[in-house]
Amino acid sequence: MNADSGASEIVSAVEALGDPERAASSQRFFKTGPGQYGEGDRFAGVPVPKLRALARSLRGLPRSVIVDLLGDRTHEVRHLALLILADNYSRESGDPERWVDVYRDAVRGGRVDNWDLVDVSAYAILGDRCLRSGDWSELLEWAASDDLWQRRAGIVATFAFIRAGRWEQIEAVAPLVIDDRRDLIQKAFGWMLREAGKRADEQTLLRYLEVNASSMGRTALSYAVERLSTERRAHFRSL
């Protein structure tokens, strides 16, 4: 497989790597049943390390093929497309915005439709673009969306700033998501707070929690305090 491969050839390669037992397990794990957040999603049963290895062989894949892969019904094919998209974006020396536009269209078109797909791409593409430009207003727009996956993408995209030692982006996103009790929003919010305390400034995290812990959902708070001492975890949970 290489960058000259077509979409149908790549889909066949992903399917060939699949395992039926793993696919069945993945469909349960990613909540694909009726009424669940991943309803109707289809899995081939390919582990992420194999997808990453395949993505490396497809580095530089054209935009049109990536768009076709993002429209495929198989989850791992879309995951693979996002890995390649993020890599193309990071290596782009001319017009990186063209790759960000592909990503925006994919999320808004409902093709980045599970938490692992959001998490592997939001900070690496959207978040990094906002970091490079110095304008992170788009993160606030996404975090304010009612759509589950757009909102999670807006939260997780702050990780690009957190990795650079910046705190203010997740603090600005926080009021937009703190009252959302959906599990996948709670986990993303708490995860980013925890990472901000770890990578940016633990004292700022502690001050934030003193003021806001009582308003946070139990899941978000549990994630946020995970790296703190036993005494501090107990204190914030008591609030």
UniProtKB/TrEMBL annotation:
Reading the lineage from the top rank, the first entry is Bacteria
Query: One Pfam family for this entry, by name?
Result: DNA_alkylation
InterPro entries attached to this UniProt entry: ARM-type_fold (IPR016024), DNA_alkylation (IPR014825)
CDD domains (UniProt xref): AlkD_like
Give the PANTHER family listed for this entry.
ARMADILLO-TYPE FOLD, DNA ALKYLATION REPAIR PROTEIN
- Provide the protein name: DNA alkylation repair enzyme
**Upper lineage:** Bacteria, Bacillati, Actinomycetota, Actinomycetes, Mycobacteriales
